[in-house]
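stage 2 :: seqdesign
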């Protein structure tokens, strides 16, 4: 059997490969494809995996907190699955087996690379703008997730969290404070709807250990994940109003209009910019930062609306002089409370923009 994957995972901003749709709409028989795949048919293996690729990629992101790490983990997991397909027992669920392979792959990768951090994890907020900020060396940062193609509802009838709810920034950041086994158990049970027995088999442990890990993980999430979720908050606001808030934020930065920006923010707003370690809390500190840096000193801004981590977001483009293109600078994710912005998370670096299908520059 070839050591090369028969088909690479799709771009992370897409859903399941469109030329290999679900078994029902493609007319292919999964049992027949499984037999072909076991005989080394890469196309058949691709058809089996295609309907689950998006769900598997999102699971890898939740486990690892990085889109790029999720790419690597999914590629490695599918290669392991391709090589080990002979060990899959047909009486079990292919979905469960693939998630087991992906989870074990992520646990190996997480152990090697460590947990992902946010600026709030490194120290207290800054009361005034830090003008000479530089990236913190040696920190593995949480990254944004392009959620296009991710389903809205739960992945299984017994799942507690919706799929988009389980990629929200607060949720994924909280997961990073869990040991790998607790993180895996919680995601498999609460997000993917697996039973304790299935999880015990996946993690090579006992059901009692799984239940204990779940109890500890739930306590951590209860302390760190705000309620209601962004999905519920966004539904209450309505799509049209959310678009107005995003457009108002982008316009305020492009005009350098501090008053318009402040009008969109809550009194306890926070703004962080990984990989910069400094972050700001409260309207006074955030306003000082905004006025002294992005609104006046950085250059000229343009923005493209997008969606990240199940939340409204913008791709940010900066032009430092009076002419030339606007170059990709960051992806800023907005967390809303009511009709105001309570958290701005700007993931700085042009590498964050491409996974969202956004251009590298604007004219």
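stage 2 :: out
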């Amino acid at each position: 059997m070839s050591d090369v994957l028969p088909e690479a995972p799709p771009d992370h901003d897409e859903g399941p490969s469109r030329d290999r749709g679900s078994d029902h709409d493609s007319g292919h028989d999964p049992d027949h494809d499984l037999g072909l795949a076991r005989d080394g048919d890469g196309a058949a293996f691709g058809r089996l995996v295609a309907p689950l690729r998006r769900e598997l990629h999102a699971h890898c992101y939740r486990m690892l907190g990085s889109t790029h790490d999720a790419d690597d983990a999914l590629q490695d997991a599918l290669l392991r699955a391709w090589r080990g397909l002979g060990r899959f027992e047909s009486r079990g669920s292919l979905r469960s087996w693939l998630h087991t392979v992906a989870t074990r792959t992520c646990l190996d990768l997480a152990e090697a690379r460590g947990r992902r951090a946010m600026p709030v994890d490194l120290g207290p907020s800054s009361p005034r703008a830090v003008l000479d900020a530089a990236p913190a060396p040696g920190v593995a940062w949480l990254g944004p997730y392009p959620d296009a193609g991710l389903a809205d509802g739960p992945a299984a009838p017994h799942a507690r969290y919706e799929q988009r709810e389980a990629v929200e920034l607060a949720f994924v950041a909280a997961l990073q404070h869990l040991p790998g086994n607790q993180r895996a158990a919680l995601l498999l049970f609460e997000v993917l709807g697996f039973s304790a027995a299935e999880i015990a088999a996946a993690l090579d442990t006992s059901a009692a250990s799984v239940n204990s890990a779940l109890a500890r993980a739930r306590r951590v999430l209860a302390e760190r994940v705000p309620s209601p979720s962004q999905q519920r908050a966004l539904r209450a606001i309505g799509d049209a109003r959310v678009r107005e808030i995003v457009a108002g934020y982008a316009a305020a930065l492009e005009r350098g209009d501090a008053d318009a920006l402040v009008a969109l923010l809550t009194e306890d707003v926070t703004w962080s910019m990984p990989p910069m370690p400094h972050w700001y809390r409260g309207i006074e500190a955030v306003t000082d930062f905004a006025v002294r840096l992005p609104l006046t000193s950085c250059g000229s801004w343009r923005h493209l609306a997008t969606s990240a981590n199940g939340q409204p977001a913008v791709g940010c483009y900066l032009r430092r002089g009076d002419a030339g293109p606007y170059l990709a600078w960051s992806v800023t994710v907005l967390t809303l409370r009511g009709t105001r912005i309570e958290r701005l998370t700007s993931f700085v670096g042009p590498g964050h923009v491409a996974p969202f299908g956004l251009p590298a520059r604007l004219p």
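stage 3 :: structure notes
- The first strand starts at residue 265 and ends at 272.
- The first helix runs from residue 23 to 26.
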